[in-house]
Amino acid sequence: MKEYSDKLLRTPRILVTGKPGIGKTSLIKDISKEINKIRIGGFYTEEIRRNGTRVGFKFVSFSGESRLLASIEPIGKLKVGKYYLVESLDILGEVKEDIMKADMIIMDEIGPMELKIGELREIIYEGLALEKFVLATVHRSVRLEGKLYELDRFNTQKIKSEILQLIKEYFGSR
């Protein structure tokens, strides 16, 4: 743990948390579009909705590939809350490779679902251990070291501006 703490002092770890549906994924996606000159590796998750009701989640890599991650319909033996999880994702090798080549890592979300899938959990922790700028959303039950922002419906723009400023300071004017 000391090695992880020492690395944290040298490279930014920006963590965003907040209630479900508050806009964490939207914030991450907006920021990733604004920093298009920085090579990003990682992933985000998107809700799958049917008739206005959330019925699952997609796992999306920053290279554009997506796969089903979780569903209210049985798709595997693993389960978190009402969602059944896939036991593996065939694009994780590509995601890991992209993270290794990236200048910045973005992960949305680090939560119970993502951490329950063994290979994805390994990629998350390996990414956090790298000496690279990390921007991640974290489920409110997950505790990680880093600068933590709590998103609410009033502070999204302020937090976005602060994070973009930190990125600019770290990477320069790229």
Automatic annotation (TrEMBL):
<dbReference type="InterPro" id="IPR003593">
    <property type="entry name" value="AAA+_ATPase"/>
</dbReference>
<feature type="domain" description="AAA+ ATPase">
    <location>
        <begin position="10"/>
        <end position="164"/>
    </location>
</feature>
<keyword id="KW-0547">Nucleotide-binding</keyword>
<dbReference type="Pfam" id="PF03266">
    <property type="entry name" value="NTPase_1"/>
</dbReference>
<protein>
    <submittedName>
        <fullName>AAA family ATPase</fullName>
    </submittedName>
</protein>
<dbReference type="InterPro" id="IPR004948">
    <property type="entry name" value="Nuc-triphosphatase_THEP1"/>
</dbReference>
<dbReference type="InterPro" id="IPR027417">
    <property type="entry name" value="P-loop_NTPase"/>
</dbReference>
<dbReference type="GO" id="GO:0005524">
    <property type="term" value="F:ATP binding"/>
</dbReference>
<keyword id="KW-0067">ATP-binding</keyword>
<keyword id="KW-0378">Hydrolase</keyword>
<dbReference type="GO" id="GO:0017111">
    <property type="term" value="F:ribonucleoside triphosphate phosphatase activity"/>
</dbReference>
